[in-house]
Amino acid sequence: MSENGSDRREMISIRHLWAGYEHEQVLEDVNFTVYEGDFVGMIGPNGGGKTTLVKVLLGLLPPARGEVRIVGQPVKRGRRYIGYVPQIAEFDRDFPVNVWEVTRMGRLGRRGLLQRLNKEDDEIVAQALREVNMLELRDRPIGELSGGQRQRVYIARALASEPEILILDEPTSSVDPQVSVSIYELLNELNAHVTIMLISHDVSVMSSYVKTVGCLNRRLFYHNDRELTSEMLEQAYQCPVDLIAHGVPHRVFAEHGTIIHEHPTEGEE
Amino acid sequence: MIAALAGALQYEFMRNALLVGVLVSVATGIIGTFVVVKRVVFISGGIAHSAYGGIGLGYYVKYMLVPVLFAGSAAATNPQPGYFPIVGAGIFGLVAAAIMGYVQRRTRQRADTLIGVLWAIGFAIGVVFVDLTKGYTADLTSYLFGSILAVQRGEVFWVLALDVVIIVAVSLFYKELLAISFDETFATVENVPVDTIYILLLCLIALTVVMLIRVVGIILVIAMLTIPAAIAGQFVRNMKRIMVWAIVLGMVFAVAGLFISYALNFTSGASIVLVAGAAYLISLGVARLRSAPAIAAPTQPFGPEGEGS
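Output (structure tokens, whole complex):
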């Protein structure tokens, strides 16, 4: 394996992407490749284009210019390799559906119209719930779950689609710090067999788990190196973002995912 | 009292009315549950009111076109409007459902304004067609407020047929209907044809609305579409169980409302809606009482959280 990982399979490849809405381009000339086995954390300010990037990757927003490929295919065909985990804040808590039913929705891409889910699907759904440690709550209505539990269910739903890539939108935005750590630990385990890309503005916990960090503020600042060094983090943090600067200890991260040292708030004034 | 109610059953119009009320509750319970959880109450109101355009058209065709085009035929000589208004309502309802669904999907903003405008246009078309059909429109208010006591035997079979259509359609597309109701973005990513399924749902709403026009009338349709499912949804957290309870509640409201209207000589549709509305208000109070102790002692038994940290 070469140093920059270029002989690994390209899971997501973005070339000269411009995207946005009628009067405004939010993403400007974004170039980016996610390789198999990557665990990419994408940070950036609100309005910096994180959500827009996810929408483009899911085929919900056509790019204005440029090319996006998922596992070598155009987005609308390639998105079946994606397991999408949306923000839990967006859901109706009163919706009458339980953990099992939500997770089964992950099988919709495999069983089209007029096809019933069968035993094999049920086994995959059960396995997905087992992976996130939520199988015993399978009959619980989602409205009665805590934020962290619901996040796990949405991860299970994404896993049930047997994805090659997990894309998570602010997975820890509405949970407390302890729960957020447990979610990152779960993602860390899942990364053994699935490529992960997440967007977040919560850099503090994220930076100790992801393998690479990108910073998106209309343009993408990304260095596809497998290890984070303090220099790289400094570089990423230097992009025009103010919200990530306050009180964040810059963690440095070694090969096996253990934190080797922490230098708290230096250089932050 | 009971003897008087039993006496009501000796009239065929009362038996037909009860039968239609009970049968329509099957469709409203199932479709009403989707209306409530998918939050498409407003667009359902739009479909119902646009259907009035079809009723006006039905009158116009029956009294202005058929006697000229098919002079001497049975349809031309029958003084009753027959199925023309209700078939017109069905056609207008389905077309309105498709247009509103399409418009809502294609415009990013102000979809509610556009639906409100289509709602009014459909209704106004009905009023103008009625103007063009002067002299034959004595019983038009029956479509606004319902005329369940005037239901004919043959209509019972139509309602039964529509129930079957709705049950079959919902069973065939249940997993997709549930998916687009719960999380449309995820369903899109899973390559579910979300626009098509959404328009299918609106069309099923249109068919249900057409049945309900006979029972409670256009103006009160929304009450019957939403109240049974809304009550059930406060007490059970499972789609299929909500549907079953909504069906049962709809039947109870229809029967109770009909007997009240018979005993007190009130308009039947309004009586049914008032029974349902009263039950809804009571259920809000009951749900509140039930949830009060739950807030004091939150149920957080076990889960994966905390153990990993």
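Chain A has eight helices and twelve strands.
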